[in-house]
C-alpha cells in the first residue's frame, strides 16, 4: 500500500517561533570576562551617508586600517564593542523574549570569549560561565537556544598571525573550540549552526573569514580557499556534535537570495540559474558532502585552484549537516553580462526589480521570493529547512509617550509569514522562524544603531549614547499573538 502524506494547512505542532541575534552585535563587554579582541571589534563606524548610497558597508578592514585602529583606537568608534550590552541585560532581554512567547532564541557564541586569541590550550572559564548563565535563563522560560558557533567574528590574533581562514591552521583551532562548547553545553543546547552565512565570503572576506584582502593576490581564489577550510571545519564540528550530543541537530547556513532573469531572454534565464548555483553552492557541499560539478567547471574556467589534502573528500562526506538554515531578506535580478557571476555573490544587485517596493536601505521586499526559495531548496535537498533570519531594517520613531508604532514592520513580517505558510502547504518541511534582530542591535553591514530591526526598542544612538532602556514596539504585541496562535492570528 502506498501511503500519501496528509496535506498540511497550517504551521506544524512544535514549530519553533522566535528571534535571532549575534554575539558581536548585542553582547558588548568586549574587554570584560577575559574576552579577547575579535575581528568585529576592529570594524570602525563609518558615516553610512558619506557616499551616494546608504549602503556604505563597513564589512571590510584593510591591513592599513587594522594597524591604524590598533595604534589610535581613541580616534574611532567601534559600535560592536558595546553592542546593546546584552552581557549585563541578558536576564531582562530573555524575559521579554519569553513574554512574546519565544520557543527558540538564536544567538551565537563569541570564539574570542572562549579562547581569547584562539591559540590557548585551555578555554576561558569566565567566558564559558557567561553562556551557562544565558542558557540557564532560556531554560527557565522553556526557550530552546539555537547556537551559531561562528557568526562573523573570530579572534583577531588569528587574522594577524594566519590571515584568517586562508590558512589551514584554523581548522584544528576551530575544532578545539567547537568540541569545547559542544562538551560544555551538551545538556543545554540541542540546535546548532556551524558558520553564519558562509557564502558571504564572496561579499566580504574580512567579515566572513577574517582575511585581509590586501594581503592576498587573488581575492576570489582566497575566498574559495578560505571557504574550503571552513567546509572542513564545519564537517569536523558536525561529526563532533553527532558524537558528543547524538540527539542534537546541527546545520549549515547561507544568505539565501532568489535570482530572477531580467527578461525572458534565454541567456538572462541561464544567468539566473548560474546565480542560483553560486548562492546554493555552500549547502550543496555541506548537505551532499562533495563539490558540485558546476563549480568544478567554474574553477577551471576562472583559473581557481583549491589546495586540498588527502582525506578532505572523505571528511566532507562524513560531516553532512542535518538541516539547512538560511537568512532571507531580498531577491536579485540578473542578466547576461560579463560581470554577472561576481554580482551573484554580492549582497545587493545593481539591477532593480520594478515590481517590488524598497526598504529605507534600498533592499527589495519580496515575500513571494521566499516561498519560491523554500520550495526550490526543499526540492534540492530533501532535508528540513530553518529560516533563521528575516526582518526589516528601518528608522523607528519614539513618540512623546514612549511608544513605537511600527506598522511597516508588522506588514513586512506578516507577508513573509503568509508565504512561509503557503510553502508548508506546498509540502516544505520548515523547522522554525527566527526573525532577525528580535531586539534592536548594531547593524552588521553599516555598524549603525539607527537601522533597527527589533520588536524591542533599545534607547541608544549610532554613537553609543542613550539609556539602553528596552521598550516594546507595536510589533512586539503583534508577534506575541502570532506565536500564541501558531501563526494563525496575523492581524489585518
TrEMBL record:
<dbReference type="InterPro" id="IPR001360">
    <property type="entry name" value="Glyco_hydro_1"/>
</dbReference>
<dbReference type="InterPro" id="IPR017853">
    <property type="entry name" value="GH"/>
</dbReference>
<dbReference type="GO" id="GO:0016052">
    <property type="term" value="P:carbohydrate catabolic process"/>
</dbReference>
<dbReference type="GO" id="GO:0005829">
    <property type="term" value="C:cytosol"/>
</dbReference>
<protein>
    <submittedName>
        <fullName>Glycosyl hydrolase family protein</fullName>
    </submittedName>
</protein>
<keyword id="KW-0326">Glycosidase</keyword>
<dbReference type="GO" id="GO:0008422">
    <property type="term" value="F:beta-glucosidase activity"/>
</dbReference>
<dbReference type="Pfam" id="PF00232">
    <property type="entry name" value="Glyco_hydro_1"/>
</dbReference>
<keyword id="KW-0378">Hydrolase</keyword>
<dbReference type="InterPro" id="IPR033132">
    <property type="entry name" value="GH_1_N_CS"/>
</dbReference>
<dbReference type="InterPro" id="IPR018120">
    <property type="entry name" value="Glyco_hydro_1_AS"/>
</dbReference>
<comment type="similarity">
    <text>Belongs to the glycosyl hydrolase 1 family.</text>
</comment>
<feature type="active site" description="Nucleophile">
    <location>
        <position position="389"/>
    </location>
</feature>
Amino acid at each position: 500500500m502506498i501511503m500519501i502524506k496528509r496535506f498540511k494547512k497550517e504551521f506544524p505542532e512544535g514549530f519553533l517561533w522566535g528571534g535571532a541575534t549575534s554575539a558581536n552585535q548585542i553582547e558588548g563587554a568586549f574587554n570584560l570576562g577575559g574576552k579577547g579582541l575579535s575581528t568585529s571589534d576592529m570594524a570602525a563606524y563609518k558615516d553610512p551617508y558619506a557616499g551616494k548610497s546608504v549602503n556604505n558597508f563597513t564589512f571590510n578592514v584593510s591591513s592599513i586600517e587594522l594597524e591604524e585602529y590598533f595604534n589610535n583606537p581613541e580616534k574611532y568608534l567601534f559600535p560592536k564593542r558595546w553592542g546593546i550590552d546584552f552581557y549585563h541585560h541578558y536576564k531582562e532581554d530573555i524575559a521579554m523574549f519569553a513574554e512574546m512567547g519565544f520557543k527558540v532564541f538564536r544567538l551565537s557564541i563569541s570564539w574570542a570569549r572562549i579562547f581569547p586569541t584562539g591559540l590557548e590550550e585551555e578555554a576561558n572559564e569566565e567566558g564559558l560561565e557567561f553562556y551557562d548563565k544565558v542558557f540557564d535563563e532560556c531554560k527557565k522560560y522553556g526557550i530552546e537556544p539555537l547556537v551559531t558557533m561562528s557568526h562573523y567574528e573570530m579572534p583577531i590574533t588569528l587574522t594577524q598571525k594566519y590571515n584568517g581562514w586562508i590558512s589551514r591552521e584554523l581548522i584544528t583551532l576551530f575544532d578545539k573550540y567547537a568540541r569545547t562548547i559542544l562538551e560544555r553545553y551538551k545538556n543545554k543546547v540541542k540546535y546548532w549552526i556551524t558558520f553564519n552565512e558562509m557564502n558571504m565570503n564572496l561579499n566580504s572576506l574580512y567579515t566572513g573569514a577574517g582575511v585581509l584582502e590586501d594581503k592576498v593576490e587573488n581575492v576570489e581564489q582566497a575566498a574559495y580557499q578560505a571557504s574550503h577550510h571552513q567546509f572542513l571545519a564545519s564537517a569536523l564540528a558536525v561529526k563532533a556534535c553527532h558524537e558528543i550530543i547524538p540527539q542534537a541537530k546541527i546545520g549549515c547556513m547561507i544568505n539565501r537570495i532568489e535570482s530572477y532573469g531580467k527578461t525572458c531572454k534565454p541567456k538572462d534565464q541561464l544567468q539566473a540559474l548560474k546565480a542560483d548555483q553560486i548562492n546554493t553552492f555552500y549547502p550543496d557541499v555541506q548537505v551532499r558532502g562533495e563539490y558540485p560539478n558546476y563549480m568544478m567547471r567554474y574553477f577551471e574556467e576562472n583559473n581557481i585552484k583549491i589546495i586540498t589534502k588527502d582525506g578532505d573528500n572523505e571528511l566532507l562526506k562524513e560531516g553532512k549537516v542535518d538541516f539547512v538554515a538560511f537568512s532571507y531578506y531580498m531577491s536579485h535580478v540578473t542578466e547576461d553580462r560579463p560581470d554577472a557571476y561576481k554580482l551573484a555573490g554580492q549582497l545587493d544587485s545593481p539591477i532593480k526589480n520594478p515590481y517590488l517596493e524598497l526598504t529605507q536601505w534600498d533592499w527589495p521586499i519580496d515575500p513571494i521570493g521566499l516561498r519560491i526559495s523554500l520550495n526550490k531548496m526543499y526540492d534540492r535537498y530533501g532535508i528540513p529547512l530553518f529560516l533563521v533570519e528575516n526582518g526589516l531594517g528601518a528608522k523607528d520613531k519614539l513618540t512623546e509617550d514612549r511608544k513605537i508604532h511600527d506598522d511597516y514592520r508588522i506588514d513586512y513580517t506578516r507577508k513573509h509569514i503568509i508565504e512561509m505558510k503557503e510553502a508548508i502547504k506546498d509540502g516544505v518541511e520548515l523547522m522554525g522562524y527566527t526573525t532577525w534582530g528580535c531586539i534592536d542591535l548594531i547593524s552588521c553591514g553599516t555598524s549603525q544603531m539607527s537601522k533597527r530591526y527589533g520588536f524591542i526598542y533599545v534607547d541608544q544612538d549610532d554613537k553609543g549614547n542613550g539609556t539602553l532602556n528596552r521598550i516594546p514596539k507595536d510589533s512586539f504585541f503583534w508577534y506575541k499573538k502570532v506565536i500564541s496562535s501558531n501563526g494563525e492570528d496575523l492581524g489585518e
